[in-house]
Automatic annotation (TrEMBL):
GO terms for molecular function: DNA-binding transcription factor activity; transcription cis-regulatory region binding. Keywords: DNA-binding, Transcription, Transcription regulation. The keyword DNA-binding applies. This is TetR family transcriptional regulator. Residues 11-71 form the HTH tetR-type domain. Pfam families: TetR_N. The keyword Transcription regulation applies. Residues 34-53 bind DNA. It comes from Pseudonocardia endophytica.
Length: 212
């Protein structure tokens, strides 16, 4: 019986692929993400990187989308207030687990798909509740911005709000002592209490707007 030999493929195998580069980017994290850091971790040249991603921004956008896939947003059912709080809580936890994610989202020229989905679900529920399109659009946007803002200037050790709290004790314009005490009691790091309080205040205002 004649032995059949499988033809051997010629040429060099690919040194890496898009998945490997993205995986390396996740390990590095957003704060230290550069083309050089990724290529060094994978062990390839810059030219190999650019065959899969045309720029660092393209890798950053792909990494943002990849990380946002972890988000398990609440189902768009029930009271709109619970959905807004639940969505903001999920996003907050995601920012907490991935330092630099919020700043990366702000930096991107296009909004991530998962972020738009979260916004769409909030606005849909608010429209169903009776909000005007303008109030639904602005209210949902304000909620998302409230969660993003503390993390935009965050470091890899926290949201940086403790330093802001300390600064309130020595300001160019003297703050009312009651305001200074309120900031000291509410401004935490990570800013769980601070952000939750702001979301609650926003929702209370939206409820009054809807009732009116």
């Amino acid at each position: 019986m004649t032995e059949v030999k499988t033809a051997r493929r010629t040429g060099r195998p690919p040194l890496t692929d898009r998945t490997a580069l993205l995986g390396a980017a996740r390990e590095i994290g957003f704060p230290g993400l550069t083309v050089g850091a990724v290529t060094a971790k994978v062990g390839v040249k810059y030219s190999t990187f650019y065959r899969h991603f045309p720029s660092l921004e393209a890798l950053l956008a792909a990494l943002v989308e990849d990380v946002l896939e972890e988000a398990k947003f609440p189902e768009p059912t029930g009271p709109w207030q619970d959905h807004v709080r639940g969505t903001c809580s999920v996003i907050f936890e995601l920012f907490s687990r991935h330092p630099g994610l919020a700043a990366a989202i702000v930096r991107l020229p296009e909004l991530p798909r998962r972020g738009i989905e979260a916004y769409q679900q909030m606005t849909d529920l608010m429209l169903e509740a009776g909000f005007s399109p303008a109030d639904a659009a602005i209210g949902a946007n304000a909620a998302l911005e409230t969660v993003v803002m503390p993390w935009v200037t965050a470091t890899d050790r926290g949201a940086g709000l403790v330093r802001r709290r300390q600064q309130t004790t020595d300001t160019p314009v003297a703050l009312d002592e009651r305001i200074r005490d309120a900031i000291g009691e509410t401004l935490d790091d990570p800013p769980v209490k601070w952000t939750t309080s702001k979301i609650d205040l926003l929702i209370a205002g939206l409820e009054l707007r809807l009732a009116g």
